[in-house]
Amino acid sequence: MATIIGICGKGGVGKTSLTALLVKYLLSKGTLPLLVVDADPNANLGRVLGITPEGDIGTICDDLLEETKKNPGSLSKPELLRIGLEESIAEEDGYDLITMGRPEGPGCYCYPNQVLRTILQTISNQYPVMVVDNEAGLEHLSRRLLRRLDLLIIVSGPSPRGLRTAARIRELVRELKIEAKNEYVVVNQTGADGTDWNTLSEPLGFSLSGTIPRDPLIEEYDLEERSLLALPDTSLALQAAFAFFKRVIPPISSGQ
Ligand SMILES: Nc1ncnc2c1ncn2[C@@H]1O[C@H](COP(=O)(O)OP(=O)(O)OP(=O)(O)O)[C@@H](O)[C@H]1O
Ligand SMILES: [Mg+2]
Q1: Closest by Cα among 8, 118, 15, 108 to 61
Q2: Where are the alpha helices (DSSP H) in the chain?
Q3: Which of 9, 134, 225, 229 is least surrounded, with the fewest CB atoms within 10 Å of its CB?
Q4: Cα(12) to centroid of ligand 1, in Å?
């Protein structure tokens, strides 16, 4: 069974950037092939990884749905979902990317969630690791796209408010009975002002698992739309993220 790693947190805290760094880390460890899932309807993980995915599940399923309306009975719903998933996979060097996207049709929003929930579990078994970049906020948790995770990484912004949101996400995970074997909170984009993040998080009932500094290189790569996979080892954010991953991700053998 694949090791499933989910990244979540509120808007703009750095989930996608950290997911890209995680992909880079796992690739460097030779944990191949990876299944990478962009579960944010406002998809941009592909671009951060330096690729333009051909299509997303939402759009592909919507198109197929239109087709089946013209030819009723031509495709069963499970077949349609399977084709949508297969066609949306971008096969890259060392990893496959699935982009969930947002379907256009009204009321269809839950559709790709359903696809992912039912089929991801199966397809993930073909990979040693599945990494999922989630959409911002807490709503996606309630849709329970992922019910079982090996690692849940909650990314917090560099403020007390950010930490409180992380605490709220932890609560929600319990309320929704999402089974996360290990859960970690990291503060991203910290400054050099000497804030003691550990002390700030203690009253909120969790101990922090890492901090990742604000790094001008990440901003630069973002502006220039360069792949974070090409970020040099000198990047301070990369170094901190890799040190965190090394602490929390157990060695995973390929083809497990
Ligand atoms: N450690 C960092 N140092 C500097 N800039 C960063 C860092 N992490 C993320 N950023 C920048 O912050 C912005 C938001 O990052 P990112 O898109 O990864 O966040 P997100 O949580 O995925 O956002 P969304 O909720 O919109 O999906 C981007 O411009 C990114 O380049
Ligand atoms: Mg994102």
Answers
A1: 108
A2: 15-28, 45-48, 57-70, 77-88, 110-115, 121-123, 139-142, 160-175, 197-201, 216-223, 236-248
A3: 225
A4: 5
Which ligand is nearest the CA of 17, by number? 1
Minimal-distance CA residue to ligand 1 atom 2: 214
Ligand nearest to the CA of 44: 2
pLDDT per position as a tens digit, 198-255? 999 999 999 999 999 999 999 999 999 999 999 999 999 999 999 999 999 988 776 5
Distance 60 CA to ligand 1 centre (A): 28
Question: 222 C-alpha to center of ligand 1: Å?
Answer: 8
Model confidence, pTM: 0.93
